[in-house]
Amino acid sequence: MIAVVGGAGYIGSHMVKYLHERDESIVVFDNFSTGHMELLPPAVKVVRGDLASLDDLRALFSQYPMIDSVIHFAAFAYVGESVMDPSKYYRNNLANTINLLDVMLETGVKHLVFSSTCATYGNPVSLPITEEHSQQPINPYGRTKLMMEQMIEDYAVAYGFKFAALRYFNAAGAAPDGTIGEWHEPETHLIPLIMDVAIGKRESIHVFGSDFNTFDGTCIRDYIHVMDLADAHFKALNYLKHDVQNLKLNLSNGQGYSNLQIIKEIENITNLKVNYVMANRRPGDPEKLIGCADKAKQIIGWEPSYDLHEIIETAWNWHEAKFGGSL
Ligand SMILES: NC(=O)c1ccc[n+]([C@@H]2O[C@H](COP(=O)([O-])OP(=O)(O)OC[C@H]3O[C@@H](n4cnc5c(N)ncnc54)[C@H](O)[C@@H]3O)[C@@H](O)[C@H]2O)c1
Ligand SMILES: O=c1ccn([C@@H]2O[C@H](COP(=O)(O)OP(=O)(O)O[C@H]3O[C@H](CO)[C@@H](O)[C@H](O)[C@H]3O)[C@@H](O)[C@H]2O)c(=O)[nH]1
Description:
This protein is α/β, with parallel strands linked by helices. 40% of the residues lie in helices and 17% in strands. Strands 3-2-1-4-5-6-11 form a seven-stranded parallel beta sheet, sandwiched between helices. A two-stranded parallel sheet has the order 7-10. Strands 8-13 form a two-stranded parallel sheet. The termini are far apart. Residues 6, 8-12, 30-35, 50-52, 73-75, 77, 92, 96, 115, 117, 168, 170-171, 184 line the site of nicotinamide-adenine-dinucleotide. Uridine-5'-diphosphate-glucose binds at residues 77-79, 117-119, 169-170, 188-190, 193, 205-208, 219, 221, 259, 282, 285, 289.
């Protein structure tokens, strides 16, 4: 059985959908601080609990002693907020993950796949970013994720944990059947915010920074479909169960798009006008993040299957249906 920690969140719920459709045995552990019950299939087992509580974690593993692996998504994940309120990030991402690891240790569960991020690299010195690129995060969020990687590696060496650190680039898109998608409150991510403008929920979007060293002055990101991420987690977990090596893998499309290009692409796909205002840089934002995911292809046989057009189409189908009607 797989425990999906943070399974009610954006990426976690797509993982749950992926596993549920393959009849995998799963249980979701979540405190619903940013997650939503509505994103989960009704038949899925759910334990409401907080990583901050050793008792909640022990209850999870004693209620489901058949758990043999954990996929860990639970964290706070807003780059800008982490600069303003780092305590929140060190507490939840780092300190609370120690609880999870220790209870896994107590119960003998040693397979762990977890959400790392390209934010651990900082401002790249070479592109595309490979896993060998130096890791010098430029915001507290990225630092918590790098520390998590290091801590988990220490547990692996000392206690025989098997782990996969999956360094995703920018997660985006929604389930192709339109049932679930990105739902953060408050929303801070570029694509759903632009879509809020397209549906008339917001008047305009602020584009943070127009003086970056990029072709149009705005930041560049590499967007990866959330179902591609789910597929990679499943492949990484299966790999860990049969092979000796631990994994540190980038999950990306290998294509960078500027913030203004994303606005244009959404206008083209939706046929709607998006008003935007150029604004100051947001502290903590790296200029360009583009990943090389060749290693994931070589080692776990994973390749992305959705391009930017499909990412935006699936995101739009969900976003318009979910948030467009209530206006
Ligand atoms: N969204 C991205 O672009 C992106 C990119 C790279 C990495 N990541 C990482 O992927 C993971 C998931 O991101 P997301 O966008 O789905 O975030 P999310 O906020 O939608 O999901 C996080 C889930 O974890 C739960 N959670 C948080 N703290 C908890 C705690 N203490 N105890 C129990 N449950 C808790 C939340 O309720 C939520 O359901 C995070 O670790 C994030 O750092 C995200
Ligand atoms: O109102 C907005 C919101 C965002 N942006 C810009 O859009 C880009 C993407 O921002 P956002 O969608 O917030 O994603 P990131 O800050 O890149 O962070 C996401 O992607 C990271 C990997 O790059 C993950 O680690 C984080 O968890 C996840 O939130 C950045 O240049 C932002 O400054 C704007 O210009 N205006």
